[in-house]
Amino acid sequence: MNETLRNTGLFAIIAALIVFTGFTQSWNAALLIISMGLISSIMALGVNLQWGFAGLFNVGIMGFVALGGLAAVLIGMPPTLGGWSAGGWGVTAALLMGAVTIFATALVAKRMRKGWLRMVTITAILVAGFMLFRAVLDPAVEAIEALNPAQTGYLGGLGLPVILAWPVGGLLAAGAAWIIGKTALGLRSDYLAIATLGIAEIIIAVLKNEDWLARGVKNVIGIPRPVPYEIDLQNDPGFVERAASLGFDPVEASTLWVKVLYVALFAGVLLILLWLSQRALHSPWGRMLRAIRDNETAAEAMGKDVTARHLQVFILGSAICGIAGAMMTTLDGQLTPGSYQPLRFTFLIWVMVIVGGSGNNLGAVLGGFLMWYLWVMVEPMGLWLMNLVTMGMTDGYWLKDHLIESAAHMRLMTMGAVLLLVLRFSPRGLIPEK
Amino acid sequence: MDLLNAFIALANYVLVPGIAYGSQLALGALGVTLVYGILRFSNFAHGDTMALGAMSAVLITWGFQAIGLHLWVLPTALLALPLAIVFTIVLLLGTDRLVYRFYREKKAKPVIFVIVSLGVTFIYNGITRFIIGSDDQNFLDGERFIISARTFKKMTGLEEGLAIKTTQGLTVVTAIIVVALLFWFLNKTRSGKSMRAYSDNEDLALLSGINPERVVMITWVIVACLATTAGVLYGLDKSYKPFTYFQLLLPIFASAIVGGLGNPVGAIAGGFVIAFSEVTITYAWKKVLGYLMPTGFEPDSLVQLMSTDYKFAVSFVILLIVLLFKPTGLFKGQSV
Predict the structure, then answer these.
(1) Contact in structure between A51 and B112 (CB atoms under 8 Å)
(2) N-term to C-term CA, chain B
């Protein structure tokens, strides 16, 4: 079978699965799967850039996605009244001071001669800098959090169109990736994995605890949308008329139309990124990356700066994850730091890349859709399986209750098993690298 | 100035918890470092191995408690520990046979092993949650305190109390015994020496007739002992909750890297460095400083450098500093 036909067939199967869901469940559910599938594909593209192109192992995807989500709040939400005058400038000043402290430390570490004097100076700068930082930050934070804590209690955003948050989310993620890449790249490959695992946990901890930034676990809800609201559509006579002419009732038509608009937006972003990734893959830059991946020593001997290229591609891949994170928070309309789980946001994306075919951009997109579909379906399937297994048992028997209750945990095992099986028996994935 | 009370407060809130936590981290980091030294990859499944091993101990403990088996003032979990270790050994050897051996024979890159271990992590995690659920489980019994704060105050007449929990004492004693056994094994026995030889130079070890599969098997057995012991001690001391073990992965890795990956002495030192940094940075120093400062100069605020929610950030920052300035760790590890 020729390759194009095979790939088209694979995508057609997924399309058929989604259409099937549309007929059997509802078109709303099907459209939701498509939009989340699009977002997942973008995340998978980013990870594929890191792993498939360059062989970098990033276990902190969750953190970069969450930073994207933060961007959606910081850009999209309206500013809190009086937030900036209460403590916004204080917080900014404190953060600047923190940056200056770190910069000064780095400068001293570089310029002064090694010895006890340098140690003392560095310690003094760090201690004084930290004291100052806390002295400015604490009252400012307190003032911000005291502002109507039930509704706001945070600085709020800039009140700009939320679409702008997508590139900004990418920038935030790129910044975090730069810090990690600077320290952990160029060392053993495992160190990057451990460092990214750490930064992801810390980003989530910051989002959960810094209430002045994005309300912490109190969640930010009602992030403005880039598409119209259902209720406005239902009140718009023109829309109702058009819906009626197509045979829809206004409520259903409005929910469907909103989702179609989201799908169109996300598909646009995916197509642009996919085009860029394909261009990158076939460019001299992409060839160089693959050469480095396949034999670092040889590439280095040819005069390629391995660490710098790794840093580049690591930042780019993380930025794409950040963009996808901002898109996801836009779709949800809320930022809930408590919902960021490593299984859902790091591990699932990895399974997508590996199942789809690492090193192949189309593979990443395919994997994104396929694994998202499975992810949605595993829970009902697990429940169905458990009901089947326990059919012979009497109701109320402890094992039956336990098994049915535990069906929700099937996801972990299924995803782990899928990853291990694919790695073992088909390590090149569904659409292998050429 | 009240040095004695200041010291007791310090011991109560910083030293005792720090030593107990440090011992737990050291045991965990020893497991990670051994896998790294022999199998040459960072085992992401270690946290969940601890969770699964501890889970089996929890279940066995419940069984013992149900038939009325108790261990005087000590937790019944100690009786269950050997059985739990056997369970974990079977589990790890099975995993190695089914999963890791294939890649070892193929001489796969370390990063593939890391990905595979991530897959194993989620299967273990799934099994744990499937069997015991994701909630808090209590399996501690026996006497709660070696010395409670009130008895200590009565005994010494001091203002501050010093409480030592049974689990804390137990943690330290067990850790010392386990580490002593481990070092005796590594330095004195033939198998231990072959393990060290294999870790130092694989080719040379193969040439001198060391069977690599046997070395790997012994490693997994030791790792199972360490992981289960660490998991049970942590679960007794804090409380058993499956997902906390995945989060322990970061401090454990940080301990192993700070000490120098592949170096057992380093893993122990690293465990205490990380534990004490975490505890001192997240502890509110108000009380201790209140005793130390001259009257009138006592601090008003809590003097807490960072809230406890950021304890992971502490191990992470230490990790970054070590990676930046001394990637081989404090004690010479293998990796650059």
Answers:
(1) no
(2) 48
What pLDDT, in 10s, does the model give residues A275-291? Answer: 999 999 899 999 999 99
Q: Chain centroid to CA A196: how far?
A: 13
- Measured CA to CA, the distance from residue B50 to residue B242 in angstroms comes to 9
pLDDT in tens, B265-320: 899 999 999 999 999 988 888 888 888 877 777 777 777 878 888 888 888 888 88
Nearest-neighbour CA in chain B from A412: distance (Å): 5
The answer to whether residues A191 and A91 belong to one domain is: no
Residue B111 has its nearest CB partner, among A55, A183, A195, at A55
In this prediction the ipTM stands at 0.86
A431 inside domain: no
Structure tokens, B51: 């969770």
Q: Which of A195, A347, A424 sits opposite B319 (nearest CB)?
A: A195
Query: What pLDDT shows up at residue B95?
Result: 95
B122 and A413: CB-CB below 8 Å?
Answer: yes
Q: Does B327 sit within 8 Å of A187, measured CB to CB? A: yes
User: Which helix (H) or strand (E) is B147 found in, with range?
Assistant: strand B145-147
| Three-class secondary structure of residue A64 per DSSP | helix
CA A139 to chain CA centroid, Å, is 33
Tell me which residues of chain A, numbers 208 to 227, contact chain B at a CB-CB cutoff of 8 Å: 208-209
Q: What is the mean pLDDT of chain A?
A: 89
Is the sign of the CA dihedral B147, B152, B154, B159 positive or negative?
negative
**A157-161, A387-391, B102-106: least confident range:** A387-391
Total domains, chain A: 2
**Are B257 and A199 within 8 A, CB to CB?**
no
What is the per-residue pLDDT across A157-195, written as a single tens digit (0 to 9) for each? 888 999 999 999 999 999 999 988 988 887 777 888 888
Is B161 in contact with B12 (CB distance < 8 Å)?
yes
**Strand A334-335, strand A220-221: pairing:** antiparallel
Digit-coded pLDDT (tens) for A26-83: 888 899 999 999 999 999 999 999 998 888 999 999 999 999 999 999 999 988 887 8
Q: Are A208 and A217 in contact (CB under 8 A)?
A: yes
How far is it, in rounded angstroms, from Cα A273 to Cα A275? 5
Contact A205 B313 (CB under 8 A): yes
Range of A136's domain?
A: 80-155
Does A193 share its domain with A302? yes
Global pTM value? 0.89
Residues A246 and A228 both lie in one domain: yes
CA distance B331 to chain A (A): 17
> For chains A and B, what is the number of CB pairs under 8 angstroms?
129
Do both A179 and A122 map to the same domain? no
Is A413's CB within 8 Å of B247's CB? Answer: no
Q: What CA–CA distance (Å, rounded) separates A178 from A54?
A: 16
Same domain, A223 and A318: yes
Establish if B316 touches chain A: CB-CB under 8 angstroms.
yes
A200 touching B, CB under 8 A?
no
Q: What percent of chain A has pLDDT over 90?
A: 44
Indicate whether A430 belongs to any domain: no
| CATH number, residue A358 | 1.10.3470
Chain B nearest-CA residue for A343: B122
Closest CB to A412: pick one of B129, B310, B335: B129
Q: Is B336 on the interface with A (CB under 8 A)?
A: yes
